[in-house]
Write a structure and sequence with these properties.
The chain starts with 16 loop residues before the first strand and ends with a helix. It is elongated and about 55 Å long. It is α/β, with parallel strands linked by helices. It has eleven helices and ten strands. Helix 3 links the parallel strand 4 and strand 5.
Protein backbone atom coordinates (compact mmCIF):
# COMPACT_ATOMS: atom_id res chain seq x y z
CA UNK A 1 0.00 0.00 0.00
CA UNK A 2 1.46 3.35 -1.02
CA UNK A 3 1.72 6.15 1.48
CA UNK A 4 -1.00 8.74 0.84
CA UNK A 5 0.19 12.17 -0.32
CA UNK A 6 1.00 14.69 2.40
CA UNK A 7 0.33 18.34 1.65
CA UNK A 8 1.25 20.67 4.48
CA UNK A 9 2.27 20.43 8.15
CA UNK A 10 -1.17 21.46 9.43
CA UNK A 11 -2.66 18.48 7.58
CA UNK A 12 0.36 16.21 7.85
CA UNK A 13 -1.80 13.09 8.08
CA UNK A 14 -4.50 14.08 5.60
CA UNK A 15 -5.70 10.95 3.82
CA UNK A 16 -3.98 8.62 6.31
CA UNK A 17 -6.21 6.05 8.01
CA UNK A 18 -4.99 5.20 11.52
CA UNK A 19 -6.39 2.33 13.56
CA UNK A 20 -6.46 3.16 17.29
CA UNK A 21 -6.79 0.08 19.47
CA UNK A 22 -6.88 1.58 22.96
CA UNK A 23 -9.66 0.66 25.39
CA UNK A 24 -12.87 2.45 24.38
CA UNK A 25 -12.83 5.03 27.21
CA UNK A 26 -9.16 5.86 26.58
CA UNK A 27 -9.04 6.17 22.80
CA UNK A 28 -10.03 9.86 22.87
CA UNK A 29 -6.66 11.49 23.55
CA UNK A 30 -4.77 9.64 20.81
CA UNK A 31 -7.64 9.93 18.31
CA UNK A 32 -8.01 13.65 18.95
CA UNK A 33 -4.31 14.37 18.32
CA UNK A 34 -4.34 12.34 15.11
CA UNK A 35 -7.49 14.05 13.84
CA UNK A 36 -5.90 17.46 14.46
CA UNK A 37 -3.32 16.48 11.84
CA UNK A 38 -6.03 15.45 9.37
CA UNK A 39 -5.94 11.68 9.91
CA UNK A 40 -8.99 9.49 9.48
CA UNK A 41 -9.20 7.57 12.76
CA UNK A 42 -10.70 4.09 13.01
CA UNK A 43 -11.38 3.12 16.64
CA UNK A 44 -11.56 -0.61 17.33
CA UNK A 45 -10.60 -1.42 20.94
CA UNK A 46 -8.13 -4.26 21.42
CA UNK A 47 -8.64 -4.12 25.19
CA UNK A 48 -11.64 -4.17 27.51
CA UNK A 49 -11.12 -3.13 31.14
CA UNK A 50 -12.95 -5.25 33.73
CA UNK A 51 -13.12 -5.36 37.49
CA UNK A 52 -10.98 -8.08 39.08
CA UNK A 53 -12.62 -11.29 40.26
CA UNK A 54 -11.94 -10.19 43.86
CA UNK A 55 -11.20 -6.85 45.54
CA UNK A 56 -10.04 -8.54 48.74
CA UNK A 57 -6.30 -7.74 48.48
CA UNK A 58 -6.83 -4.23 47.11
CA UNK A 59 -9.35 -3.42 49.84
CA UNK A 60 -7.01 -4.71 52.53
CA UNK A 61 -4.16 -2.54 51.19
CA UNK A 62 -6.35 0.57 50.94
CA UNK A 63 -7.57 0.13 54.50
CA UNK A 64 -3.95 -0.11 55.68
CA UNK A 65 -2.23 2.60 53.63
CA UNK A 66 -0.43 3.83 56.75
CA UNK A 67 1.68 0.63 56.62
CA UNK A 68 3.34 1.69 53.34
CA UNK A 69 6.14 4.08 52.45
CA UNK A 70 5.70 4.11 48.66
CA UNK A 71 2.75 3.71 46.29
CA UNK A 72 3.49 2.91 42.62
CA UNK A 73 0.86 3.33 39.92
CA UNK A 74 1.65 2.18 36.40
CA UNK A 75 -1.40 3.28 34.38
CA UNK A 76 -4.35 5.64 34.26
CA UNK A 77 -6.57 2.55 34.50
CA UNK A 78 -4.91 1.68 37.80
CA UNK A 79 -5.48 5.20 39.13
CA UNK A 80 -9.15 5.15 38.15
CA UNK A 81 -9.76 1.68 39.55
CA UNK A 82 -8.00 2.47 42.83
CA UNK A 83 -9.89 5.72 43.39
CA UNK A 84 -13.18 4.05 42.59
CA UNK A 85 -12.46 1.49 45.28
CA UNK A 86 -11.31 4.17 47.74
CA UNK A 87 -14.63 5.95 47.27
CA UNK A 88 -16.48 2.69 47.88
CA UNK A 89 -14.50 2.09 51.09
CA UNK A 90 -14.70 5.77 52.12
CA UNK A 91 -10.92 6.05 52.20
CA UNK A 92 -10.05 9.71 51.61
CA UNK A 93 -7.06 11.12 49.73
CA UNK A 94 -5.70 12.31 53.10
CA UNK A 95 -4.72 8.68 53.74
CA UNK A 96 -2.28 8.94 50.82
CA UNK A 97 -0.49 12.10 51.99
CA UNK A 98 2.14 10.37 54.18
CA UNK A 99 3.13 8.11 51.26
CA UNK A 100 5.59 8.90 48.51
CA UNK A 101 3.99 8.27 45.14
CA UNK A 102 5.58 7.13 41.87
CA UNK A 103 3.78 7.31 38.51
CA UNK A 104 5.10 5.56 35.41
CA UNK A 105 4.50 8.51 33.07
CA UNK A 106 2.89 11.93 32.55
CA UNK A 107 -0.63 10.63 31.86
CA UNK A 108 -0.63 8.59 35.09
CA UNK A 109 0.85 11.56 36.98
CA UNK A 110 -1.88 13.86 35.66
CA UNK A 111 -4.61 11.39 36.64
CA UNK A 112 -3.24 11.27 40.21
CA UNK A 113 -2.79 15.04 40.53
CA UNK A 114 -6.31 15.67 39.24
CA UNK A 115 -7.45 13.88 42.37
CA UNK A 116 -5.52 16.29 44.58
CA UNK A 117 -2.54 14.11 45.38
CA UNK A 118 1.14 15.04 44.87
CA UNK A 119 3.34 12.79 42.74
CA UNK A 120 6.93 12.51 43.98
CA UNK A 121 8.52 10.58 41.14
CA UNK A 122 8.09 10.16 37.39
CA UNK A 123 10.99 8.30 35.73
CA UNK A 124 12.83 9.74 32.72
CA UNK A 125 11.66 6.90 30.47
CA UNK A 126 8.08 5.79 30.95
CA UNK A 127 8.75 2.08 31.42
CA UNK A 128 9.02 -0.29 34.39
CA UNK A 129 12.81 -0.53 34.16
CA UNK A 130 13.10 3.23 34.57
CA UNK A 131 10.94 3.20 37.72
CA UNK A 132 13.25 0.52 39.12
CA UNK A 133 16.36 2.62 38.33
CA UNK A 134 14.80 5.64 40.03
CA UNK A 135 13.74 3.76 43.17
CA UNK A 136 16.42 1.11 43.60
CA UNK A 137 18.50 3.13 46.08
CA UNK A 138 15.51 4.60 47.93
CA UNK A 139 13.49 1.57 48.99
CA UNK A 140 15.74 -0.59 51.14
CA UNK A 141 13.76 -1.57 54.25
CA UNK A 142 10.66 0.21 52.90
CA UNK A 143 7.18 -1.15 52.23
CA UNK A 144 5.95 -0.60 48.70
CA UNK A 145 2.40 -0.95 47.36
CA UNK A 146 2.17 -1.62 43.61
CA UNK A 147 -1.35 -1.24 42.16
CA UNK A 148 -1.68 -2.67 38.65
CA UNK A 149 -3.53 -4.94 36.22
CA UNK A 150 -4.06 -8.63 36.93
CA UNK A 151 -1.54 -9.67 34.27
CA UNK A 152 1.56 -7.49 34.05
CA UNK A 153 5.33 -7.74 33.83
CA UNK A 154 7.07 -8.55 37.11
CA UNK A 155 10.08 -6.27 36.61
CA UNK A 156 9.10 -3.76 39.33
CA UNK A 157 8.34 -6.14 42.24
CA UNK A 158 11.19 -8.49 41.39
CA UNK A 159 13.87 -5.81 41.16
CA UNK A 160 12.66 -3.74 44.13
CA UNK A 161 12.63 -6.84 46.32
CA UNK A 162 16.24 -7.45 45.27
CA UNK A 163 16.95 -3.88 46.43
CA UNK A 164 15.62 -4.72 49.90
CA UNK A 165 12.01 -3.50 49.66
CA UNK A 166 8.95 -5.37 50.85
CA UNK A 167 6.56 -5.16 47.89
CA UNK A 168 2.84 -5.91 47.91
CA UNK A 169 1.37 -6.35 44.42
CA UNK A 170 -2.40 -5.93 44.20
CA UNK A 171 -4.64 -6.11 41.16
CA UNK A 172 -7.14 -3.32 40.63
CA UNK A 173 -8.46 -4.37 37.22
CA UNK A 174 -7.98 -6.88 34.44
CA UNK A 175 -7.71 -6.51 30.68
CA UNK A 176 -9.55 -8.89 28.37
CA UNK A 177 -10.06 -9.27 24.62
CA UNK A 178 -13.27 -7.49 23.52
CA UNK A 179 -15.03 -10.13 21.42
CA UNK A 180 -17.14 -7.48 19.66
CA UNK A 181 -13.94 -6.15 18.06
CA UNK A 182 -13.12 -9.39 16.25
CA UNK A 183 -15.59 -8.97 13.38
CA UNK A 184 -15.01 -5.20 13.17
CA UNK A 185 -11.26 -5.69 12.77
CA UNK A 186 -11.66 -8.37 10.09
CA UNK A 187 -14.04 -6.13 8.12
CA UNK A 188 -11.73 -3.09 8.38
CA UNK A 189 -8.77 -5.09 7.07
CA UNK A 190 -10.75 -6.47 4.11
CA UNK A 191 -12.43 -3.22 3.04
CA UNK A 192 -10.08 -1.15 0.80
CA UNK A 193 -11.86 2.07 1.84
CA UNK A 194 -11.50 1.30 5.55
CA UNK A 195 -8.19 -0.59 5.60
CA UNK A 196 -5.76 1.32 7.85
CA UNK A 197 -2.39 2.62 6.71
CA UNK A 198 -1.14 2.54 10.34
CA UNK A 199 -2.07 0.48 13.43
CA UNK A 200 -1.12 1.96 16.82
CA UNK A 201 0.00 -0.08 19.83
CA UNK A 202 0.17 1.57 23.26
CA UNK A 203 1.05 -1.45 25.42
CA UNK A 204 2.08 -5.09 25.21
CA UNK A 205 -1.52 -6.05 25.98
CA UNK A 206 -2.77 -4.21 22.88
CA UNK A 207 -0.28 -6.23 20.80
CA UNK A 208 -1.25 -9.61 22.26
CA UNK A 209 -4.96 -8.91 21.97
CA UNK A 210 -4.58 -7.62 18.39
CA UNK A 211 -2.88 -10.89 17.40
CA UNK A 212 -5.69 -12.86 19.05
CA UNK A 213 -8.34 -10.74 17.30
CA UNK A 214 -6.61 -11.31 13.94
CA UNK A 215 -7.29 -15.03 14.16
CA UNK A 216 -5.53 -17.68 12.13
CA UNK A 217 -7.79 -18.18 9.11
CA UNK A 218 -5.29 -16.75 6.63
CA UNK A 219 -1.58 -15.86 6.82
CA UNK A 220 -0.87 -12.81 8.96
CA UNK A 221 1.45 -11.36 6.31
CA UNK A 222 -1.45 -11.31 3.84
CA UNK A 223 -3.82 -9.66 6.29
CA UNK A 224 -1.35 -6.95 7.24
CA UNK A 225 0.42 -6.38 3.92
CA UNK A 226 1.32 -2.71 3.46
CA UNK A 227 0.11 -1.68 6.93
CA UNK A 228 2.61 0.07 9.22
CA UNK A 229 2.87 -0.97 12.88
CA UNK A 230 3.40 1.98 15.28
CA UNK A 231 4.72 1.34 18.81
CA UNK A 232 4.64 3.66 21.83
CA UNK A 233 7.82 2.32 23.43
CA UNK A 234 10.52 -0.36 23.74
CA UNK A 235 8.49 -2.87 25.76
CA UNK A 236 5.62 -2.70 23.26
CA UNK A 237 8.13 -2.97 20.38
CA UNK A 238 9.68 -6.04 21.99
CA UNK A 239 6.25 -7.70 22.21
CA UNK A 240 5.51 -6.89 18.56
CA UNK A 241 8.74 -8.58 17.47
CA UNK A 242 8.21 -11.49 19.86
CA UNK A 243 4.83 -12.17 18.20
CA UNK A 244 6.24 -11.93 14.69
CA UNK A 245 5.13 -8.40 13.83
CA UNK A 246 7.30 -5.56 12.51
CA UNK A 247 8.02 -2.29 14.27
CA UNK A 248 7.75 0.23 11.44
CA UNK A 249 7.24 3.32 13.61
CA UNK A 250 8.65 3.75 17.13
CA UNK A 251 8.02 6.71 19.44
CA UNK A 252 11.12 8.38 20.88
CA UNK A 253 9.09 9.80 23.77
CA UNK A 254 7.17 6.88 25.26
CA UNK A 255 3.80 8.59 25.55
CA UNK A 256 0.84 9.53 23.32
CA UNK A 257 2.37 12.82 22.04
CA UNK A 258 5.58 10.97 21.15
CA UNK A 259 3.63 8.32 19.25
CA UNK A 260 1.77 10.97 17.25
CA UNK A 261 5.04 12.75 16.37
CA UNK A 262 6.57 9.45 15.22
CA UNK A 263 3.57 8.67 12.99
CA UNK A 264 3.63 12.16 11.49
CA UNK A 265 7.33 11.87 10.67
CA UNK A 266 6.97 8.41 9.20
CA UNK A 267 4.21 9.48 6.83
CA UNK A 268 6.26 12.35 5.32
Amino acid sequence: MKKPPVRDPANALLGVRVLVGRARHQAGALSQELRKLGATVIEIPFIEIRKPSSFKRLDSALKNLADYDWLILTSVNGVEAMWERMTKLRVTTNALKPLRIAAIGPATKKAIEQRGVKVDLVPKAYVAESIVRSLRHRVKGKRVLLVRAKVARDVIPKELRKAGAEVDVVEAYEMVVPESSRTRLQKALKNPRRRPHVVTFTSSSTVRNFVELLGAHEPRDTKLAGILMASIGPVTSSTLRELGLRVDIAAKEFAIPGLVVAIRRAMH
